[in-house]
Design a protein that fits this description.
7 helices, mainly alpha
């Protein structure tokens, strides 16, 4: 039950952030809908508020979640070379994200910051999650340009990134 409430809180803050950054309302309404399914909800509940006795179960739930929701950057990284039929893209290299997905991703990050850390990004002149994680996020160069432009417009830029 605790994780369900946390998820609903997160969805609310993603909606507020998404409106600010211009993400499509429809995407904000269906944001993270699979977290409400038993296949994810149970594993997330155990991981964050339970005994964490099934790390493999959580890993499978997280993988399913990333593969279902295009606002996750991981969704845009092909795992095999099957895409070479239409155009050559090296294995495991990110594809460009559409603008709507970049905006939802940013709203997701902003909403997560507010939900889990208790403040909006840059509220205290810092965005600790982004500072800690941005170097590990793999994005296509075009997506980096889009994200950087949004971060600049909304004055959310990560210092030194």
């Amino acid at each position: 039950m605790k994780y369900l409430l946390l998820t609903l809180r997160h969805k609310w803050f993603v909606l507020l952030a998404g409106i600010k950054v211009g993400a499509p309302i429809w995407r904000l309404l269906i944001h993270d809908w699979t977290k409400l399914l038993p296949s994810e909800l149970y594993q997330y509940q155990r991981q964050f508020f339970g005994d964490q006795g099934d790390p493999n179960g959580f890993a499978v739930a997280w993988l399913k979640h990333q593969n279902t929701h295009p606002h996750h950057w991981e969704y845009w990284i092909p795992r095999t070379g099957h895409n070479r039929c239409t155009r050559p893209v090296p294995d495991n290299e990110p594809l460009p994200m559409p603008d709507w997905a970049v905006r939802e991703m940013l709203a997701d990050w902003m909403g997560a910051c507010r939900s889990y850390e208790g403040n909006w990004p840059m509220e205290n002149d810092t965005w600790s999650w982004l500072d800690r994680n941005l170097e590990h996020v793999r994005l296509h160069p075009d997506t980096c340009v889009s994200l950087d432009a949004l971060l600049t417009v909304y004055k959310l830029g990560a210092k030194g990134k």
